[in-house]
């Protein structure tokens, strides 16, 4: 498990490097093949619980969404982008695999 100090840019860089070591370069076709099940998982009960856990963790760290600017890269169906926006954050969601967007 990678621990990230959300206020320290070098911590995010380290997390990226570790993740890249584990997963390497994966092209869009790999994600495209997973898209049909991904939206259901991300927006299903387990995905909603995970989103609530992440938001609770951010709340505990003192992160305030109101007026925040959020860039969600690899946003998929918006499992995080939508809840952040509902909490008054200005969200830009970027997703290369359009089949993950579902009905959006």
Structure description:
With about 100 residues, this protein is mainly α. It has one domain (about 10-100): 3-Layer(aba) Sandwich (Rossmann fold). It has helices at about 10-25, 30-45, 45-60, 80-85, and strands at about 70-75, 90-95. The chain has a two-stranded parallel ribbon with strand order 1-2. It starts with 8 loop residues before the first helix and ends in a 10-residue tail after the last strand. The model has no long low-confidence stretch (mean pLDDT about 80).
Q: Determine the structural class based on helices, strands and strand pairing.
A: mainly alpha
Q: Which outline best applies?
A: globular
Strand order of the largest sheet: 1-2
**Gyration radius, in Å:** 15 Å
Q: What is the tally of helical segments? A: 4
CATH superfamily: Vaccinia Virus protein VP39
Instruction: Tell me the number of structural domains.
Output: 1
CATH top level label = Alpha Beta
Percent in strands: 5-15%
Question: What is the terminal separation in angstroms?
Answer: 32 Å
- Unreliable stretches (pLDDT < 50, length at least 5) are none
Strand runs, count? 2
Task: Give the CATH topology.
Answer: Rossmann fold
In CATH, the architecture is 3-Layer(aba) Sandwich
What's the story with the biggest beta sheet? 2 strands, parallel
InterPro entries: SAM-dependent_MTases_sf
Organism: Paenibacillus alginolyticus
Protein name: rRNA adenine N-6-methyltransferase family protein
């Amino acid at each position: 498990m990678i621990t990230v100090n959300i206020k320290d840019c070098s911590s995010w860089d380290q997390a990226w490097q570790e993740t890249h070591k584990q997963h390497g370069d994966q092209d869009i076709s790999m994600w495209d093949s997973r898209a049909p099940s991904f939206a259901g998982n991300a927006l299903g009960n387990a995905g909603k619980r995970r989103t609530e856990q992440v938001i609770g963790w951010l709340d505990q760290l003192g992160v305030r969404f109101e007026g925040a600017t959020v860039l969600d890269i690899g946003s998929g169906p918006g499992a995080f982008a939508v809840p952040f926006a509902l909490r008054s954050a200005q969200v830009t969601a970027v997703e290369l695999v359009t089949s993950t967007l579902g009905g959006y």
